[in-house]
Amino acid sequence: MDDKKTLYSAIQPTNNLTIGNYVGAIKNWLNLQENYDCYFAIANMHAITVRQNPAELRQKTLALLALYIACGIDPQKCCLYVQSHVPAHAELCWVLNTFTYVGEMERMTQFKDKSARHAENVNMGLMDYPVLMAADILLYQAQFVPVGEDQRQHLEIARDIAQRFNNAYTPTFTVPEGLYMKVGAKINDLQDPAKKMSKSAENPNGSVFLSDDRDTIIRKFKRAVTDSGSEIRFDPENKPGVSNLLTIYSVFSGKTVPEAEAEFAGRGYGDFKLAVGEAVADKLQPVQREQEKILADREYLNAVLKSGAERAAHIAARTLGKVYKKIGFYQI
Ligand code: TYM
Q1: How far, in Å, from the CA of 24 to the mean position of ligand 1?
Q2: Which domains does the chain have, with CATH numbers?
């Protein structure tokens, strides 16, 4: 038995992933997989809280698995699986619903945003999203959850729910902690640097997708909004556009932000934006090629998902069994 701590995270297989998803989540996972017992899920149950095209959802599920592997997540080391393959997620979610208040769900920023964007379909699942997310994390007794800044509020709720349950009975769940990147926990929109870069942004020029080709990536960076003045300096308050680009450059080039500032001292915005675009394209091109190769091997992907689901289900059943016992579900 190893005594590694457990780490859990997931991504929804919706739309096209952006470099924000890569930097805030996947890149962080890569560094952590050696030292933790990792579970990385494909959150298709979360995805259906917004209407999805079924054929596309299926395709994107496999594409996301191929992307995890192409980015360097090793299925031998980490448990990679699809959320809906482990029924315990829905089962624990139901129990946790009874430890969650309607008022606190109504106050969630993401719920408010998504309700406004999908006013025609403000379904119960959309509101329950954070409880399902809590169930994901708590089933595996995860100590750490590496996510982007936008998930902080959901993580706080997962902690509250865990503590509430533990206090009502006896300690049952590990209370999880978020792990946020020091640089890159929030990548912003290239056209509107006050907003986070999003998979579902209205202006596609503001988001760089992991599937964008080299020319598109470079074009988007060339058009990125910068700030008044001409200095290339990290100052998120006064220079949000340039600071966002420096963050992206730092992550994709492997240089620190001060090193990047020094590199571009005295140079113009045009040069700088081109260099950022090139750094991103250089990194993404091999990942895209690898993803395509992996995606062609359906048998391999199915095998990864099958063994992932078995491993995940085993651990999840253990936690769910404890929960059912504590709440008084009669067991045979
Ligand atoms: P999703 O698919 O919306 O986002 C996946 C991950 O990408 C991060 N992220 C960003 N990071 C930096 N800058 C950005 N602009 C940016 N945009 C997105 C998100 O913070 C996230 O880490 N609810 C989760 C999926 C989920 C989950 C879980 C996560 C379901 N169950 C359990 C952790 C634990 C989500 O929004 O994914």
Answers
A1: 8
A2: 6-180+298-327 (3.40.50.620), 204-292 (1.10.240.10)
